Amino acid sequence: MSSTVAAGIRQVWMNGELRAEQETCVSPFDHGLLTGDGVFETMVCYEGRLFAFTRHWRRLERSGAVLGLEIPGLEELRAASNEVLEGNGIGNGRLRITVTGGPAPLGSEKGNAGCTVLIAAAPLNPVPRKARVAVVPYRRNEHGALTGHKTTSYGENVVALAYAKARGASEAIFGNTAGRLCEGTGSNVFLVSGGELMTPPLSDGCLPGVTRSLLLELSARDGIGVREESLPLEALAEASEAFLASTTREVQAIEAVDGRALAEAPGAITQHLAHAFRALAESDLDP
Q1: What percent of the chain has pLDDT over 90?
Q2: Roughly what angle, to the nearest 10 degrees, separates helices 210-221 and 53-67?
Q3: Whole-angstrom distance, CA of residue 78 vs CA of residue 275
């Protein structure tokens, strides 16, 4: 372990160089800071090894293309990410890659100084097996320019999560403008009703989650029928079982919606997919 790690000085990677957090400076004119002109990916590492890096990089590239951001290559970012993990002595943790528009004028117009690329990591806190969720009165715009892309424009999520936590929940659930079930602030939603597993389609405005896509593949492999179907927002509270899916949560059972307990938490399908996902993560680091 390096002396900087031992002294608690965090190491971050910025624009090609690993440096101490205190020595890292982002321009006050950075377009990501000023307008949210940025994209990011959060991934996990187990015993110092990154999980599903290629899938996360592909989504980062797709999101970057929408905002006109040049995303560094797969192997460059993989090597830089491993530098950050090693430089911080992290075994089980979370790593975030952020790419912004870089220095720009004070407005919506983009600059020409090039992107800012940042990679940071931190230990991964244990996630409870169950979650209580609250449906928020705000709506996702399924027709928005950034819908389906992981951008740094997260103000709506901050407000929604605070609303949920004030009501004793750990995650907020959004509907879309049509009143259909959409997603959480950082998670996709699956539910079981009438013995069928269902999740909202991407066309209803939810993020194409990496964990979501892996669970769809695992369900097909294991003979679990799952439908991507538009669902009324009320369907979640009426489900027999439901769960959240995300990079850091993996599969987390929902035990209550707006204080109303679900019948099974975790239910049989939730338990099966949680075990299947954990087995996948232990056997294939880049599925």
Answers
A1: 95
A2: 130
A3: 27
